[in-house]
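G.,

No rush on this.
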Amino acid sequence: MMTGLHGCSCSNHTTLKLASIPTFSSPLFPFKNPTFSFHKSPLPRPINALSSAIVQTTTTKAPQDQGVKPQWKATIDFKWIKDNKEAVAANLRNRNSDADLDLVLHLYDKMFTLQKEVERVRGERNAVANRMKGKLDPSERQRLIEEGKNLKEGLAALEDDLVELNDELQQEAQCIPNMTHPDVPIGGEDCSTIRKMVGSSPNFSFPVKDHLQLGKELDLFDFDAAAEVSGSKFYYLKNEAVLLEMALLNWTLSEVMKRGFTPLTTPEIVRSSVVEKCGFQPRANNTQIYSIDNSDQCLIGTAEIPVGGLHMDSILSDSFLPLKYVAFSHCFRTEAGAAGTATRGLYRVHQFSKVEMFIFCRPEESEHYHQELIKIEEDLFSSLGLHFKTLDMASADLGAPAYRKFDVEAWMPGLERFGEISSASNCTDYQSRRLGIRYRPVSEAQVTSAKKSKGNLAPPQFVHTLNATACAVPRMIICLLENYQQEDGSVLIPEPLRPFMGGLSVIARKSL
């Protein structure tokens, strides 16, 4: 999930040169975990779920030249918006959205009227063409030729106007956020409600250190060198911190795979259009996205984007739903404007590793899987012994795609506050309508008929998409260092992570 872990805005999008983009390898399993075997994955389907068997039909995609913004259309239900104008308007107010609903409806009515005019003129042109097929007096034929020519020119002008109007309608309508779950609290972030509280904050009999002091004393980070090499809000991990990052990633992947998720590593550069289709605005004034100069590409801020695009423009097989993925990626965010003690160190950075869960499912199942995702998050954080609370986020704190969002905030003793470590969002069909991802339900006719034909196929429907953070590494490192610090300056490693760190149980000061 992209929103939440980076709650700031910037006035201008940031651009990068292509040559400056590093490449990354997949995370490795540096140590054998005696309780987990990759070759005996408990997935409910073969691990090759990415094969073409899950896709019944795929639309042809036009080639896109680098640097040229692709044209795409979201399948927005404008009639539903018009019929439910008051509900949509209330939703915009509750979310503090600046989308212009009146303009959208005006453009829709205008386009509907223009479409009727196009159809009328096209019908007249066809009628003239049909009349010219028979025997005609030369003067009558010439008159029809002139009439046909005028109709053709008029039709071309109307069709150009229709394309331009449709583009304007799409641009405005794509600013309208998803509708909101009726149980979501209305208001700003302060109105979010506590869904669950787990554990209690640790009691220390010694002065508590924050992760920056612990990292310095244990030789785990180097922010100064990273600032010289890359700029502020970058960092080097060193020594046991590197092992801790790998342990968190591999432990999280193994735990989530046990729950039936297929593992992925994703591209970390994607087309701007895919970012937009997932509900983000890569070149808006408040963007978190790094855009690459002289291209139509961006660095990802979350694996939600490339995983969401995985089945773009496809009709999925009903028998393979739900599709559950757990993806490792590096994430890149501008984080402009973030400052102060609450965001220093590893808390808010430009680049970090993350494990993201993503589900494609049938519409009637999305609320069930939303509960499943937050349960997985809570189980992971509980097994690490963290004190945390789960929040049902208020309407004004929801990103545009989210129908409902649960955030998890963990206690960070060094910061003396709770800090967000994950979120889980149900985006219903908001993203799939933009990405063109549908499925074809098995109809009763297909079940009862031995023959398969187009006549007994159910019409395709848009899937629902959900995403959730399983592990955002820097903030997890903050939690572990600050909550497991000892009086002698060492840090204990939680039991579940030790097999992934070669059996290491404590991070101790280096001997001189």
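When you get to it, here's the other one too:
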Amino acid sequence: MPNSSQTSIKDPFMPCKNLTFLSPNIMRGLLAICIFAVFSICYFSSLPGSKWRFNYGEIRIHASYNQLTNNGGDQETDISHILFGIGGSAKTWNRRRHFCELWWKPNVTRGFVWLDKGPDQWPETSPPYKVSDDTARFKYTCWYGSRSAVRIARIVKESFELGLENVRWFVMGDDDTVFFTENLVNVLNKYDHKEMYYIGGNSESVEQDVVHSYTMGYGGGGFAISYPLAAELVRILDGCIDRYAEFYGSDQKIGGCMSEIGVPVTKELGFHQLDIRGSSYGLLSAHPLAPLVSLHHLDYVQPLFPFTNRVAAVKKLISAYKSDPARALQHSFCYDLTRNWSISISWGYTVQLYPVLVRAKELNTPLRTFLTWRTWSDNPFTFNTRILRLDPCERPVLFYFDGVEEFGNGNTLTRYKRPHDAYWRKCESKNYKAAYLVKGFNVSAGFLDPRIWNKAPRRQCCEITNGSDQRDGVVQVRIRGCSQWESVTPP
């Protein structure tokens, strides 16, 4: 009997030795079966759409996925490649639909408004709708939130499972989000739709980013998910929703899922959540150097233009945008050294005239015309701001977009006028009195090639073309590309 204190070491090849009792014919038969099985698995797993795949879920990859890997997937992305998923509700749609209808193009734009229940009637001018699946089985434990976050988080999954052809990007937004689709297409064309991309922007209010996340795309401003990433996301989404049951919003839940997949948000500065209170003027008049992609919370901020309602104000901005999409809200500034004037232009929106020389750093910093979203405080924001003084002698003279003309040689002329200011305090200093004599600005510019956003970004330059000869009270300004070695530098 062997000693129990001795360790028994097994020969790793012992199982093979135990087979030596089998006859050679049986051994050859088993070997043939094994070889056939291996080749069969390899063959079937290589077939398109095959279910013989070693993955951790049962998500079905639609035939459109195969288009991403053939030659047809190499053409530039256009609006037909985007499927929009708009979070809405039957109760609020009639109140908010006007924003969506400003940018939606029937028979051109693809997607659906996802509702909590079927509406009594549906306007012909609205995008088509679908009713979301019941989500009662999912957990939701955020005490101050709404269970609708679960339903809206699943829009990307339900959109994916429609199996529509030729989809490269799933773009999520709210029913009060305005998308600038030409610019959205140009932004997405910067990225390879065959890779896993998650593209969007953060909140403007630091307190929102601290509570929710800096590492997610905010849903109101909209975010885009490439098809391959959507295929990964929908596989884990339902379980992920339960794992992050305490999260407030749908976008926060999606962000948590992206963390599990390991794909970070790619931030684009043109997605605007507009988590601000008051007037968005300061932000939009010093827009970041990026194409305008979206605006959100337009029902909560003041109208973009004075003396008009919110929908009409957005429609006015869109009229400028349509003339030159890539240039909308692009910021330029220049100086009139004969009168010590500083002129700041947000194309298609506003002109600010300072009858003093203001340094470029200040002109490039948004005026704080707004407060934070949650606590209505004057800071902090995710970008620098400067104080808008109450003293009229420390404020710019404002002019707002009033119309646009297009010329056949690839140019536009935008007009800006000073609104009625009978109730506003005026500065009595000599230099401001001269500025108040200006009735408006005419700004000419060539069409901005959207491919410029694929290059290293640089703000364009401008110059006053009629000097001090302003018999009609209108200043003529030309926006152009900067010359070599040119900088905006006051003395």
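The CA atoms of residues 138 and 239 lie 9 Å apart. Residues 325-480 form one domain.

Enjoy the weekend,
O.
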